[in-house]
């Protein structure tokens, strides 16, 4: 039985989906991930789906579910590296994945999560904004 | 009788061609600018040769028989070339109609004394030539449709450029009506470009879209949502006052989408998101 590894990196959990998801695998991932969030009290979940080329409505729902469940457990979910075809398919299926954060790649996803954690402290965010200018 | 007719036509081929050419050249609608007389003559000769040599008693009124296929091929070829060259339907039709006239003229000469026979034979020829004209028109229209289809494809290709206005900012000016097929092309191009350039902001400029109805708005919302799923942000700019009015009157909810009046303000917004600043420099560099 395949298993998708969940890596821990500081306060975040990293999931890289390297195979095409089938239903059983996706359901296992959902429960594993939620358990892991609970165990490690992670603040953020990064799901890399850059290698996923096929999605259906079920998969879209699972991703939405993972985000909602993590949210309840106080962790933000960021989906990164979605393929254009996958994005179009999800939109055509009527699944805009509300409540899920997205980023172009792992690096941008990571900085998005970091900035979200920082924004818990609004004053700090303000000062950071001012100092970084080009 | 029928035997006589096709034999007669075969014997009189030269006469028919001359008469036909005369008819065609006498026609006011002759397009000397599009086709030279020599070319017209060779086209006519080719067609009439194929016509009389394939004519026989059995197939006179059966255009589906195999013997007719060379004639139909030639006729179709001529009709399609004419469609592409920009002939009008009337001019193309006259090509076949003038042949009918020539055939009837020759027939009249030959069957001068026999009214009944002339009537019978001309009825046959009429039927045959009418069938041929219908085929000409069908092919002509098909040729025109191909031209239109090709142009539509070309317009769709040309009219969806994705421009890199800044490092990490893409702009996509949409010109012309947005229908489902075009939205698909726009969306695919945009998403592909986002992946390739790693841009995090896309600006959709709709100042060239003549009207926005609920369907177009739906397409825009889809594109924005797809961009968001990819992890980039999408700004819609170039909303004219009339479009703002229609959108509100139609009750379309665009509150989840960042909208700006001009491309400039969209770009300024993008700079703000990326924490970039545009400054006027104090020193003038020469």
TrEMBL record, chain A:
Residues 115-134 are annotated as: Disordered. CDD domains: STAS_RsbR_RsbS_like. Residues 118-134 have a biased composition (Acidic residues). It holds the Pfam family STAS. InterPro entries: Bact_StressResp_Reg, STAS_dom, STAS_dom_sf. Transmembrane segments: none annotated. Residues 1-113 form the STAS domain. Gene3D superfamilies: STAS domain. It comes from the Bacteria. This is RsbT antagonist protein RsbS. It comes from Daejeonella lutea.
UniProtKB/TrEMBL annotation, chain B:
It comes from Daejeonella lutea. The keyword RNA-binding does not apply. This is RsbT co-antagonist protein RsbR. Signal peptide: none annotated. Transmembrane segments: none annotated. Keywords: Phosphoprotein. CDD domains: STAS_RsbR_RsbS_like (cd07041). The lineage of its organism: Bacteria, Pseudomonadati, Bacteroidota, Sphingobacteriia, Sphingobacteriales. The keyword Phosphoprotein applies. Residues 159-270 form the STAS domain.
């Amino acid at each position: 039985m395949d298993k998708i590894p969940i890596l821990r990196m500081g306060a975040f959990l990293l999931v890289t989906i390297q195979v095409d998801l089938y239903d059983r695998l996706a359901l296992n991932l959902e429960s594993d991930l939620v358990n892991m969030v609970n165990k490690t009290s992670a603040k953020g979940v990064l799901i890399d789906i850059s290698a996923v080329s096929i999605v259906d409505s079920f998969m879209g729902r699972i991703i939405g579910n993972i985000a909602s469940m993590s949210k309840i457990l106080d962790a933000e979910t960021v989906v990164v590296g979605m393929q254009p075809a996958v994005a179009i398919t999800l939109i055509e299926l009527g699944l805009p994945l509300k409540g899920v954060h997205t980023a172009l790649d792992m690096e941008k996803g990571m900085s998005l999560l970091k900035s979200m954690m920082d924004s818990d402290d609004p004053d700090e965010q303000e000062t950071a904004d001012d100092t970084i200018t080009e | 009788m029928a035997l006589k007719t096709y034999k007669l036509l075969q014997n009189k081929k030269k006469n028919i061609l001359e008469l036909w050419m005369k008819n065609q050249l006498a026609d006011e609608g002759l397009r000397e600018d599009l086709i030279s007389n020599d070319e017209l003559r060779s086209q006519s000769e080719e067609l009439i040769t194929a016509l009389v040599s394939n004519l026989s008693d059995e197939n006179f009124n059966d255009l589906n028989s195999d013997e007719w296929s060379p004639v139909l091929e030639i006729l179709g070829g001529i009709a399609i070339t004419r469609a592409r060259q920009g002939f009008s339907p009337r001019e193309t039709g006259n090509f076949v109609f003038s042949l009918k006239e020539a055939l009837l003229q020759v027939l009249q000469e030959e069957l001068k004394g026999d009214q009944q026979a002339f009537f019978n034979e001309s009825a046959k020829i009429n039927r045959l030539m009418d069938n041929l004209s219908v085929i000409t028109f069908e092919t002509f229209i098909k040729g025109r449709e191909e031209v239109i289809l090709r142009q539509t494809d070309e317009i769709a290709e040309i009219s969806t450029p994705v421009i890199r206005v800044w490092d990490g900012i893409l702009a996509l000016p949409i010109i012309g009506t947005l229908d489902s097929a075009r939205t698909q092309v726009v969306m695919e191009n945009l998403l592909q470009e986002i992946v390739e350039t790693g841009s995090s902001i896309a600006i959709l400029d709709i100042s060239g879209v003549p009207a926005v109805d609920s369907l177009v708005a739906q397409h825009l919302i889809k594109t924005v949502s797809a961009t968001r799923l990819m992890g980039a942000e999408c700004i819609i700019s170039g909303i004219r006052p009339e479009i703002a009015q229609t959108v509100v009157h139609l009750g379309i909810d665009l509150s989840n989408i960042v909208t700006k009046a001009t491309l400039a303000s969209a770009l300024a917004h993008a700079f703000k998101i990326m924490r970039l600043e545009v400054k006027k420099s104090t020193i003038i560099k020469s």
